[in-house]
Amino acid sequence: MQDLKINWYFHHFSELTLGQLYDLLAERQRVFIIEQTCLFPDIDGLDQKSWHLLGYSKLEDGSQLVAYSRILPAGLSFAEASIGRIITSKRARGTGAGIELMEESIRHLEKMWGKVPIKIGAQEYLIKFYRKFGFEIVDEPYVEDGIPHVHMLRQGGGL
């Protein structure tokens, strides 16, 4: 599959349109709850305090949300700033959309708060992927919603 042309939109929760909110909640449900069969409260009370990065691409059936992440300030999910709910849609996998999503997420986070440490909760099978962006494992593996995870940290100051 070839690279997608992605248009990025970055908004605080209070700035999201109803359409964007619907799209991000629907895609999170498709990926986390349906694909990964994780029954968990996706709407966790943190969305309203977070920024949201949405990547749309024009596909054969119109513009679709193909990549998304939630960016949280330090002290909300972890002591450090964090990036979570990182997803690429099935249609966008293998196109480079995930790489572009992480680059854009880090860029927007650093634009707001500078080159601060960033912590993520990563599924174990994605460790190698996140290492490409300077993230390193900082504790023992744990199981969340039946899926092995690790916490990873990217030190402030970049790569």
Features:
159 residues; Aminopeptidase; 3 helices; 35% strand
Description:
The chain has 159 residues and is α+β, with helices and mostly antiparallel strands. The protein has one domain: Gcn5-related N-acetyltransferase (GNAT) (Aminopeptidase, 3-Layer(aba) Sandwich), CATH 3.40.630.30. It contains three helices and eight strands, in the order βαβββαβαβββ. Strands 1, 2, 3, 4, 5, 6, 7 and 8 form an eight-stranded mixed β-sheet that branches. The longest helix is centred in the first third of the chain and has 18 residues. The radius of gyration is 15 Å and the shape is globular. The chain starts with 5 loop residues before the first strand and ends in a 5-residue tail after the last strand. The mean pLDDT is 93.
